[in-house]
C-alpha cells in the first residue's frame, strides 16, 4: 500500500459514489489530502476539511423568550465573524427537539451527510 499526498480529481470522480457532493479540491479548507494506492489501483481517498463547531450556553434561570432573543443575536454575530475567518459552515450538535426547531427557524438545516461522529486526538 502506498499513500500519496495528492489527489487526482478524475480518479476521485471515478470512485465517488455520489452519496454526498464531490469535494471541491480548490477549497483551501481541505487541509489534508491523501490517496491510498494498492497494486496500481486507487483504494481510497481521504480529506480533512476545516469546519466550525458552534456551542451555545444559556442561563436556564432566565425566561425562554429572553434566551431565544439573545441566542438569535449571538448566532447572527457569530455567523458573520466566522465568515470573516474564511469558514463557510458551522456544525452544531443538538439533543433537544425544541432547540433544533429554534435553530432551524434561524436557518440551520439537518446535515445530509450522515450521522455525526467525532474523534479526539
List keywords for this structure.
121 residues; alpha+beta; three-stranded antiparallel β-sheet; two-stranded parallel ribbon; 3 helices; 5 strands
Describe the protein's architecture and organization.
The protein is an alpha+beta fold and 121 residues long. It has two domains: 2-49, no CATH class; 52-105, no CATH class. Helix content is 31%, strand content 21%. The chain is built from three helices and five strands, in the order βαβββαβα. It has helices at residues 9-15, 64-84, 97-105; strands at residues 2-4, 30-38, 41-49, 52-53, 90-91. It has a three-stranded antiparallel sheet with strand order 1-2-3, with helices on one face. The longest helix has 21 residues, at 64-84. The protein is elongated and about 65 Å long. The model has no long low-confidence stretch (mean pLDDT 93).
Amino acid at each position: 500500500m502506498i499513500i500519496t499526498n495528492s489527489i487526482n480529481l478524475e480518479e476521485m470522480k471515478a470512485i465517488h459514489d455520489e452519496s454526498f457532493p464531490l469535494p471541491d479540491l480548490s477549497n483551501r479548507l481541505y487541509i489534508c489530502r491523501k490517496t491510498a494506492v494498492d497494486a496500481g489501483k486507487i483504494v481510497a481517498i481521504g480529506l480533512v476539511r476545516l469546519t466550525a463547531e458552534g456551542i451555545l450556553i444559556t442561563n436556564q434561570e432566565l425566561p425562554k423568550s429572553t434566551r431565544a432573543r439573545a441566542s438569535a443575536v449571538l448566532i447572527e454575530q457569530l455567523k458573520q465573524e466566522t465568515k470573516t475567518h474564511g469558514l463557510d459552515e458551522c456544525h452544531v450538535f443538538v439533543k433537544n427537539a425544541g432547540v433544533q426547531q429554534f435553530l432551524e427557524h434561524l436557518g440551520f438545516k439537518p446535515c445530509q451527510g450522515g450521522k455525526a461522529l467525532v474523534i479526539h486526538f
